[in-house]
Amino acid sequence: MTFKVAVTGQRRREILALALPIIGGMTSQNILNLVDTAMVGRLGAEALAGVGMVSFLAFLSVAAVTGMSSAVQALAARRVGAGDSRNSAVSLNGGLLVALVYGIPVSILLWFAAAPIVAALLSDANAAREGAQYFEMRVLAIIFVGMNFAFRGFWSAVGQTRLYMRTLVIMHVINVFLNYALIFGHFGFPALGTQGAGLGTAISMMIGTGIYFYLALRHARSSGFLERMPSREQMAGLLRLGLPASIQQVLFAGGFAVLFWIIGQVGVRELAVANVLINITLVAILPGMGFGMAAATLSGQALGREDPDDAYRWAWDVSRVGSIVFIGLGLLMLVPTRHVLALFLADPSLVELGVWPLRLVGIGILIDGIGLILMQALLGVGASGVVMVVGVGMQWLVFLPLAYLLGPVLGHGLLDIWLAMNVYRALQAGIFAWVWQRRRWQHIQI
After folding, report:
1. CA 436 → CA 44, 82, 309, 379, 386, distances in Å?
2. What are the boundaries of the signal sequence (predicted)?
3. pTM over the 0.85 mark
């Protein structure tokens, strides 16, 4: 069954009520990343290249638990849809436990191994030194990042996205202040450079976790927060949903680390520009992630009500609403392109290097955004295995080999690599649309 009717005012309001706080919170997070990039960029190309590579290593280090966010969201949304709100926080408790068990040993291991790992990935010694100092600080917060993602999944599932947004904004204001103080040595703090950037981010993550616990004790005790742990069967269900998403996140982050290595073989200047391009792109796709999380909640709750037709329709309704935002973002990257890049790159030659790759991002953002919405909707209805196979396969079997061929082997630059990225993301979006249209996901039991 295909729904071609216009989105009603009521459904549009439901979509925006869920999506806008998520987008606002995530936008603040990535604006923070851009502010960090701008600050680190003042330290030189080596610092920018080193932090760019290590940022994805930091994401890789927590990816195994960030995937639990979609599992927490899917399970909590089903409970809410089925009228069992009393147990909706049980999956959150399980997600927090996974973050704790995973985070302690991994933080210790990576702190000691930071320097040799970064040195193996960056041929430039100065960039490697700067990156290692940043990475050592970021791994201190792995536990807190994992917990924060579990809270994000829960707040999204129960429709309390405003709590998520407010907490993120507080975290990011603190982060900007600490990074400014610790990178450059202001307000009596020592000037720690890239190490200060990592330390400021780690401290803000810890503070954010404390705020989330406080809010959950106020708003989620009646839903079982810290009162009922998942049973063995419930924990198995959480892991069954979360592990494919976690594996995808690990390989996705690993894929970007490989992409940075590939671009590093082309040149340090290209690597510095790629760091800026990726951070801008992450901001541009945030509406896709925000609308996608709204689709995951709405479709998951509809399945909890045993209404698969409504679950199917929600993803397309969310895509229609989100498309307007994606078109606007695309135009912003197509017109004032040089002005956007100049915010982060002081060297005019580096700006010119990034102009057409950024325009390609603007051209492809509509299709990529809809693909992200459908991907999150599939995670929300429990189809994490399908999402993992498609996402990992397209990135590792299609895009990365093509990027290596175009870059180090054939000697092409960033433009051809970014063109290949556009093709890969469009193909992935098409596959997700086909999977959603087939509707086999409506029979998944979680």
Report:
1. 46, 22, 12, 11, 11
2. none
3. no
